[in-house]
């Protein structure tokens, strides 16, 4: 490591992930003098084709419903920004946090959670589908950019963070060579090669990325919902924390136009949630007094968390968004189309894998087999919304001549 990278490690907390102490990559590679291993992980994610495709994957609104609504790409960038800033303030490794944040949604199929629900239903006889595990599968199997290995060959810490940023995946230590059947397929497929210690918590950096995800989508989905006219500003006053901020904004800027009031509300919400997270997390860290990242992993509880009042407020906000936005009839109409598109494509490709592009057809087995179903799921999961619509039109609109 260069002197610059060593000096950077001196600024980190004892329990932060340090590049010099990384468990390394599954396929050993020489280090570079100008970037740490976690910086290289981040850069590899950014340059991946899966990351680029997030541009046209649904957050809530499908791509053609407006140019200013969030997509999975802009959401991931916003999660990354919050993660990086908070990691820096807490003396955690911001490069690792950023790598996890940028990669956390790579496994989402087209059409958001509706697409995942339908794809999982299609795969119920073939070991199911899980978007968190699919992100790991993409980064270790499906991305093909290097001559020496499949995947991006990311560090153990980045893969660990993706696998369990929401907490331990199993209750007790397992034989990673024989993963239990209840684990998502992608985890069971990868674990025999690389034990990710699924029974422990992830690093503080990965935990922070998970909460940054909550902060970003709660505040920014609210922003999108207001700008789409699905609900009004005054309706949010049912939620005490949000009501307080609305009153603050309206009192401070009584003559400001509606779009400025919304922006002021959203930025204050983000600041309030980040500040609460940092206060509660620092309190937990002082109480635990960790000396290493392994103390974080074995703490028995998350060290990065919201205070109880903020946690309850975020639950209220999520409940409001669920009722007034995620189940709004305009969103439901698009979701209904999305269900049919994903289900139709899966049934056709699984029965007729010869209709898959050549490189995917070559990976498939017999029609209807588990091998073919997994290839089909991987292919569909990688689609953007518009590509899925286009493929469906090509295959099911019998009047179309050009394929």
UniProtKB/TrEMBL annotation:
Keywords: Hydrolase. Residues 26-37 have a biased composition (Basic and acidic residues). Residues 18-37 are annotated as: Disordered. Residues 72-218 form the HD domain. Transmembrane segments: none annotated. PROSITE patterns: HD. HAMAP family: dGTPase_type2. Belongs to the dGTPase family. Type 2 subfamily. This is Deoxyguanosinetriphosphate triphosphohydrolase-like protein.
